[in-house]
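Supplementary notes for students who missed Thursday's class. We covered one full example, reproduced here. Read the sequence, then the structure, then the short commentary at the end.
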Amino acid sequence: MTAWTLTAWTLAASIPSPDSGVWYVGPVPLRGYALCIILGILAAVWIGDRRWRARGGSAGDVADLALWAVPFGLVGGRLYHVLTDAELYFGEGSNPVTALYIWRGGLGIWGAIALGAVGVAIGCRLKGIRISEMLDALAPGVLVAQAIGRWGNWFNQELFGLPTDLPWAVQIDPAYRPSGYAEFATFHPTFLYESLWNLAAFGVLIWLDRRFRLRHGQMLAAYVMAYTLGRGWIEMLRIDQVQLIDVGGLRFNVWMSLIAFALAAAWFVWSRRRQASRPVGSEPPSLDR
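Structure (token representation):
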């Protein structure tokens, strides 16, 4: 098989990227990235509401909290991205105003989760809801939101991985290939890997909750562990330029995954032991009003 034939076969078998990530309804632009984020949020609210009501909560609580969590999460996600990739917005020849162009992509999950949780905490405080119980109810749905949201990277042709000729490789147009990779046409679809990982992790978390009745922040900790376990190895495949911490040459987000996993695991073990040490019948009510 000649090199030309092999290249043609790889392109035919690979995943094509969209010709455009923007469609117009009259003068109104509809952006694939934004639609994925919105669909993810709606899925997280729906799943969270079902889980919250199954735990004895009131219908509408999750939707009310979303009014706090969503804007906080978007701001946190954008801040994290801008701070860790500051040279894109404040370096030589860049325009700081583009830091506000959220529709172009660039939401850091760590910032989104951190400030989104702050938004949830504020809403819970105002409504008299126990924060840990609400976060446990919401956590699995966040994985589904992330799985859907990752497809926004496909529309933007961004955050892909190393070159590969695997059948499920994604085609990237020359304009979107980073420096040093211009001669390659297909790359690891890391957005797809993370999307599938998150959906699988969602299933595992739902099973764990039914089997072991995770409470007191344990489901939230399990979510962090499940997500970071996948994010760590997927991150190692990516070739986009990000800030590095000069310890072992690992990418910044890999270190964040390692730290978050360790903290979540410690909390999970401590919480489970504390729960097991309580006398039977001493468990407090799961919901506060």
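Commentary. The chain has a mean pLDDT of 87. Residues 29-161+186-275 form one domain. If anything here is unclear, bring it to office hours.
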